[in-house]
C-alpha cells in the first residue's frame, strides 16, 4: 500500500470514528423501540422486528445505493403483514417476504426503479395516514387494557365499551409513556437520548418500582429464528401478496432515498442499486424469520441529523441491534407491552400529517390524499392504494385535457382563442362559444393547442364549413403543431404532445408559415392586424400602466441595421430602453463638424430628463457602415458620405491597435468602432462629469449575427467576453 492510499484509509477511519460511530448509536437507540413496536402492530413475533432491523442495517446498508438511508421494519407495511399473518400464518408470511425480495432484486437488475417514482406522493402520504389511523385505533385498545379488534371500524365501534372498562395500571403506564414522548423533546440537554427510548425506559422503571400488573415482552429465547414455509391457499392471492409487499416496500424505500438526497451533500443515491439491495435484504430477512424491510424516513432523518457521513453508520446501527438483542434480551423483556402500544399510538397519530395535505392543496391533490386515507381505514390497504392511484389518474387526465375558449369582438372581427388540449371533453365548451358568432362574420381562430383528437377536429371543421357557406371568413392560426391543418389535409396526426414552438413575433415576414394574402394589404399592415389580434390583448394592461410616463434605465445606441432587434437581444420590454439608431451606431464628438443635433438631443434628453443610469453602445458583425469606411462610399450617397466622417476616429484607432488574432479586419473595425463611441460620448462635458461622479456607466456590446451571441466588450483590452 502506498503512503497516499494509507493516508486516505486513515482519513476515512477517522471520519467513521468521528461522525458515523456516534450517529450509529443514536439511530440504534431509535431503531430498537420502533422495531419492537412495529412487530407488535404486525402481529409478528417480537424478534421478527429486531431481525429486520439487523438485516436492514447490515445488508441493505452495505449494499444500498444511498450512503445515509437506514432500512428496517416500517410502520407503513404493518397492516399488510398483519393481514398476511392472519391468513397464512407467520412462517408462510416469511416466505412471502422472501419472494417479494426476489422480485425487488429482479426489478432492480432490470433498472426500473425510476418508474416507482411515478406514484403520486398524495397516494403515498394518504396511505401512510390511513395506516397511522388504523394503528392508532388498534393500539388504543391495548393502551386501555383491552384487545384490538380485526378492523378499524370494529375498533372504533368497540371503543366506548373499552373506555367504560378501563384497566388502571395499563392506562397509567400508557399515559406516562405518551407524556414522556410529548415532553422529552422540549427538555434541555436531554436530546442525546431519543424520546421513544426514554419513554420506554421511564415506563419500565416506573412500572417495576410500583409493582404494576402489566404484560411484559418475552425475549428470553433471543432471536429464536424459525425458517419460512410455503404458504397454503390460492396461488393467485399469494402472488398478489408478494407483488403488494414488493411494490409497497420498494416505493417507500425509493421515496425515502430521494428525500434523503435532499438532506445531505454527499454522493447522490443510485435508485436501481438501492432497490436491488432492498430485495437482497428482504430475501435474507424472510429467510431468517424477520419482517419485511424498507427504507424508513424517521431513522434516515435521525441518521442525517446525527452527522452520518457514510454507510458505516447504517451498518453499525444494525450491528448494535444484534449485540444488544443477544446480550441484553432480558433487559428488553422488562418493557411493558402497554408502553409499547402507547408508543405505537403516538407514532400512528404522527403519521397523519395534515401538513402534507396542506402542501397538496395548492396542486389540487387533497382529494387523492383523503380518499386514499379513508379507503385504507374503512376497506383495506390494497384497495385504498388502487383507488387512490385511480383517482390520481382521473385528476391528471382532467388536467391534461383541460381547455379554455376565449371569445371577443374587435370591431367587425371576432377572435376565438382556444388554449390547452382540445379533446372530446372540450367539445361542448367549444361549441357554445362558436354558436355566439353571427353568420357571415370575419373570424380569427387562434389554436394554442398541444393536442386535438378526432372528435374535436370534426366539430371544428364542420363549423368552419357551415360558417363559410354563410359568407363568413375564418383565418386559422396554429401556434403549436398543425393539428387542424394536418387533419384537414388527411395527413397523419401523431398522437402525442409535442414541445411548444417558439412564438413567431420575431420571425421575418418571409419566414412566417402563413403567407400574407394580397387582399390583406402590405405586410406591415398585416403584421399590425396580427398585433391587434394576438399581442395587443396581452400587453394592453402593461401599456396602460406605462402610458403616463416613461422611466427607462438605459440609453441604447445601436445600428439601424434591420437585423438588429434591441428588445430581442436584451430580453427587454416596453419602458426599459431609450433607443437611438443610426447607420454605424455612431456618436458624433462634442461640437464636431458636420454637426448633428439629433443624436446629441437624444443623449441630452436621456441624461437630463429621463436620468438613465447606463449608456450602452451596441455594434454588430458585418456592419455596412464599417464596410464603407474600409472601402469607398458610392458617390451618389451624399448624406451617407457626410455622416461617415464621424467614423474616421474609429478607422484611425483600428489601424493604430494590433488586430486581435482570429478576427477579420471588418470584424475588428466593428468592435473598435464601439469602443471609440464610448470615447466620443466622454467628449460631452455632462457625460464625463456624471461618469466621474459614479452616476452614469458606459458599456459596450457587440452582437455576432451569425452565431446569435452577444459579447460584452472589454474597453481596456478590446477582447470580447461572451455574456452567459
The main sheet orders its strands as 8-7-9-10-11-12
Look at the helices and sheets and give the structural class: alpha/beta
Tell me the overall shape. elongated
Rounded to an integer in angstroms, the radius of gyration calculated over CA atoms is: 37 Å
Short note summarizing the structure:
With 724 residues, this protein is an alpha/beta fold. It is built from 29 helices and 12 strands.
Task: Map the helices and strands.
Layout: H1 3-42, H2 46-63, E1 71-72, H3 78-88, H4 90-109, H5 113-116, H6 121-143, H7 152-164, H8 168-184, H9 195-210, H10 235-261, H11 271-287, E2 294-295, H12 297-305, H13 312-327, H14 329-332, H15 337-351, H16 354-361, H17 366-378, H18 381-400, E3 403-410, E4 413-422, H19 427-435, E5 442-452, H20 454-469, E6 473-478, H21 483-488, H22 523-546, E7 554-559, H23 566-570, E8 577-582, H24 597-609, E9 614-620, H25 624-630, H26 638-643, H27 648-656, H28 665-682, H29 685-692, E10 697-704, E11 709-713, E12 720-722
Parallel strand pairs: 4-5, 5-6, 7-8, 7-9, 9-10
Antiparallel strand pairs: 1-2, 3-4, 10-11, 11-12
Helix pairs in contact: 1-2, 1-3, 1-9, 1-12, 1-13, 1-15, 2-11, 2-13, 3-4, 4-10, 4-11, 6-7, 6-15, 6-17, 6-18, 8-9, 8-15, 10-11, 17-18, 19-20, 27-28
Description:
The chain has 724 residues and is an alpha/beta fold. The strands form 3 sheets. The chain has a 6-stranded mixed beta sheet. A 4-stranded mixed beta sheet has the order 3-4-5-6. The chain has a two-stranded antiparallel sheet with strand order 1-2. The radius of gyration is 37 Å and the shape is elongated. The chain starts with a helix and ends with a strand. Mean pLDDT is 83; it is low at 1-8, 496-502, 515-520 and 719-724.
Amino acid at each position: 500500500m502506498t503512503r497516499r492510499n494509507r493516508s486516505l484509509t486513515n482519513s476515512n477511519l477517522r471520519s467513521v470514528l468521528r461522525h458515523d460511530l456516534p450517529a450509529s448509536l443514536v439511530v440504534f437507540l431509535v431503531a430498537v423501540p420502533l422495531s419492537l413496536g412495529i412487530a407488535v402492530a404486525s402481529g409478528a413475533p417480537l424478534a421478527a422486528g429486531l431481525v429486520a432491523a439487523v438485516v436492514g442495517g447490515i445488508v441493505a446498508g452495505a449494499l444500498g445505493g444511498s450512503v445515509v438511508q437506514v432500512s428496517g421494519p416500517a410502520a407503513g407495511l404493518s397492516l399488510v403483514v398483519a393481514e398476511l399473518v392472519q391468513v397464512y400464518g407467520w412462517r408462510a408470511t416469511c416466505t412471502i417476504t422472501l419472494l417479494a425480495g426476489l422480485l425487488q432484486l429482479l426489478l432492480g437488475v432490470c433498472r426500473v426503479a425510476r418508474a416507482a417514482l411515478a406514484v403520486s406522493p398524495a397516494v403515498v402520504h394518504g396511505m401512510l395516514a390511513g395506516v397511522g389511523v388504523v394503528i392508532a385505533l388498534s393500539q388504543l385498545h391495548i393502551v386501555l387494557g383491552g384487545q384490538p379488534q380485526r378492523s378499524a371500524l370494529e375498533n372504533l365501534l368497540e371503543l366506548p365499551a373499552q373506555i367504560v372498562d378501563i384497566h388502571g395500571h395499563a392506562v397509567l403506564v400508557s399515559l406516562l409513556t405518551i407524556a414522556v414522548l410529548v415532553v422529552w423533546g422540549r427538555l434541555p440537554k436531554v436530546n442525546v437520548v431519543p424520546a421513544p427510548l426514554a419513554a420506554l425506559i421511564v415506563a419500565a422503571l416506573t412500572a417495576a418500582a410500583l409493582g404494576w400488573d402489566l404484560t411484559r415482552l418475552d425475549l428470553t429465547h433471543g432471536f429464536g429464528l424459525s425458517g419460512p414455509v410455503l404458504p397454503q391457499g390460492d396461488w393467485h392471492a399469494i402472488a398478489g401478496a408478494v407483488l403488494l409487499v414488493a411494490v409497497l416496500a420498494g416505493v417507500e424505500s425509493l421515496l425515502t432515498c430521494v428525500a434523503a438526497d435532499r438532506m445531505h451533500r454527499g454522493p447522490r443515491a443510485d435508485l436501481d442499486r438501492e432497490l436491488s439491495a432492498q430485495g437482497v435484504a428482504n430475501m435474507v430477512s424472510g429467510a431468517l424469520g424477520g419482517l419485511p424491510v424498507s427504507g424508513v424516513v424517521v431513522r434516515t432523518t435521525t441518521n442525517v441529523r446525527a452527522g452520518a457521513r457514510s454507510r458505516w453508520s447504517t451498518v453499525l446501527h444494525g450491528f448494535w441491534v444484534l449485540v444488544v438483542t443477544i446480550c441484553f434480551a432480558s433487559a428488553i423483556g422488562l418493557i411493558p407491552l402497554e408502553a409499547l402500544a402507547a408508543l405505537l399510538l403516538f407514532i400512528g397519530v404522527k403519521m397523519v400529517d395534515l401538513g402534507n395535505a396542506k402542501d397538496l392543496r395548492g396542486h389540487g391533490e387533497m382529494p387523492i390524499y383523503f380518499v386514499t386515507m379513508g379507503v385504507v381505514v374503512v376497506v383495506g390497504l390494497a384497495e385504498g392504494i388502487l383507488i387512490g392511484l385511480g383517482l390520481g389518474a382521473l385528476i391528471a387526465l382532467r388536467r391534461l385535457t383541460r381547455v379554455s375558449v376565449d371569445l371577443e369582438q374587435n370591431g367587425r372581427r371576432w377572435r376565438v382563442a382556444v388554449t390547452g388540449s382540445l379533446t372530446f371533453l372540450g367539445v361542448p365548451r367549444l361549441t357554445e362559444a362558436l354558436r355566439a358568432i353571427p353568420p357571415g362574420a370575419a373570424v380569427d381562430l387562434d389554436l394554442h393547442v398541444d393536442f386535438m383528437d378526432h372528435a374535436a377536429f370534426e366539430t371544428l371543421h364542420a363549423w368552419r364549413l357551415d360558417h363559410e357557406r354563410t359568407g363568413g371568413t375564418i383565418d386559422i392560426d396554429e401556434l403549436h403543431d398543425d393539428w387542424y391543418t394536418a387533419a384537414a389535409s388527411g395527413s397523419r396526426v401523431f398522437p402525442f404532445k409535442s414541445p411548444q414552438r417558439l412564438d413567431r413575433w420575431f420571425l421575418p415576414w418571409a419566414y412566417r408559415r402563413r403567407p400574407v394574402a394580397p387582399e390583406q394589404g402590405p405586410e406591415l399592415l398585416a403584421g399590425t392586424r396580427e398585433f391587434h389580434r394576438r399581442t395587443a390583448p396581452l400587453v394592453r394592461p402593461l401599456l396602460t400602466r406605462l402610458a403616463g410616463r416613461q422611466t427607462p434605465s438605459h440609453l441604447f445606441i445601436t445600428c439601424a441595421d434591420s437585423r438588429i432587434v434591441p428588445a430581442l437581444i436584451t430580453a427587454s420590454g416596453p419602458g426599459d430602453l431609450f433607443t437611438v439608431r443610426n447607420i454605424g451606431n455612431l456618436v458624433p464628438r462634442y461640437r464636431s463638424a458636420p454637426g448633428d443635433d439629433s443624436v446629441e438631443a437624444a443623449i441630452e434628453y436621456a441624461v437630463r430628463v429621463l436620468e438613465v443610469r447606463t449608456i450602452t453602445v451596441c455594434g454588430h458583425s458585418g456592419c455596412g457602415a464599417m464596410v464603407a469606411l474600409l472601402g469607398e462610399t458610392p458617390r451618389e450617397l451624399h448624406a451617407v458620405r457626410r455622416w461617415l466622417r464621424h467614423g474616421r476616429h474609429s478607422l484611425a484607432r483600428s489601424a493604430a491597435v494590433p488586430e486581435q488574432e482570429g478576427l477579420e479586419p471588418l470584424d475588428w473595425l466593428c468592435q473598435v468602432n464601439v469602443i471609440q463611441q464610448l470615447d466620443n460620448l466622454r467628449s460631452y462635458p455632462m457625460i464625463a462629469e456624471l461618469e466621474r461622479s459614479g452616476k452614469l456607466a458606459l458599456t459596450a456590446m457587440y452582437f455576432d449575427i451569425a452565431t446569435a451571441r452577444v459579447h460584452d466588450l472589454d474597453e481596456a483590452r478590446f477582447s470580447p467576453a461572451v455574456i452567459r
